[in-house]
Specification:
Number of domains: 1
CATH architecture: 4-Layer Sandwich
Radius of gyration: 20 Å
Shape: globular
Helix content: 10-25%
Largest sheet: 8 strands, antiparallel
Structural class: alpha+beta
Order of helices and strands: EHHEEEEHEEEHEEH
Strand content: 25-35%
Number of helices: 5
Length: about 260
């Protein structure tokens, strides 16, 4: 089995997960700044530090250092340096199955990091506000950061999720043969719980020979009231609601497919 290979020395493979979420909302012109302020407070540096601490616990990392910063007028960043824990690897698995939500998994890590940056912004004319959070988890050792996906998806109000996973470098077995990946993976989707996947439209773009995997997700169910920030916006006329729904769904489609559409 690939997860029982005997290695020569330390596992030098670097496994990198880039996890991006988008939360989309409609706000009237009078409430756009209030939405930005709400998101900025809900996902401030303190909250993000807790989320990354939980991620570190899930993948069994020992936190060496934390740097965090809130920005003016908006946004926040947190960076953690993490290292291996001097603990047993018994029961540790990189199988293609969802990770915990959340519970501690023991891991072996070194020269690794976890970072998050937030980007609240709003459309200057259409009343659409979009919150983006970028999280990067890089590990060296046995465990894969893919085991943190379930927790991350449920830690944010994720309308759209875009994930990239890559295994870089090489390690060696005891006979000196280079190994460019040490666990089986056919899709990032295999590391996400079924009840979560059922809620999203999903697309894969994978380059197997280069150990590059890409998955993006967009919520299937759309209820306009879930995207209205202010109670005042619920009082929109039927015609206004139809126009707002068109704008919100266009914003989601443009982000998901990575191209602009004419209005």
């Amino acid at each position: 089995m690939i997860d029982k290979l005997k290695l020569h020395g330390f596992n030098n493979l670097t496994k990198s997960l880039s996890f991006n979420i988008y939360d989309i909302c409609y706000t009237s012109a009078a409430n756009q700044q209030k939405y930005i302020e709400y998101i900025d407070e809900a996902y401030n540096a303190e909250r993000l530090t807790q989320i990354l601490t939980d991620v570190a616990n899930i993948i069994g990392a020992h936190i060496l250092n934390i740097a965090h910063q809130d920005y003016d007028p908006q946004g926040a960043s947190v960076t953690m340096l993490i290292s291996e824990d001097a603990i047993s690897h018994a029961g540790l698995s990189n199988s293609q199955s969802p990770g915990p939500l959340p519970e501690t998994v023991l891991a072996h890590l070194d020269k690794s990091h976890i970072t998050v940056h937030t980007y609240p912004e709003s459309h200057p004319h259409f009343g659409i506000s979009t919150f983006r959070a970028d999280i990067d988890v890089a590990t060296c050792g046995k465990i894969s950061p893919l085991k943190a996906l379930n927790y991350l998806i449920h830690s944010f109000e994720s309308d759209i999720v875009i994930m990239d996973y890559r295994v870089r470098g090489f390690t060696r077995d005891v006979n000196g043969k280079k190994l460019y990946i040490d666990h089986e993976i056919t899709s990032i989707q295999n590391f996400i719980a079924e009840d979560t996947k059922s809620q999203y439209q999903m697309i894969d773009v994978n380059v197997y020979q280069e150990n590059i995997f890409h998955t993006k997700m967009m919520l299937k169910q759309f209820e306009l009231d879930d995207y209205l920030f202010s109670p005042d916006d619920v009082l929109l006329t039927p015609g206004e609601r139809a126009e707002v729904q068109k704008k919100v769904q266009q914003e989601m489609a443009e982000i998901f497919y990575g191209r602009n559409y004419d209005t």
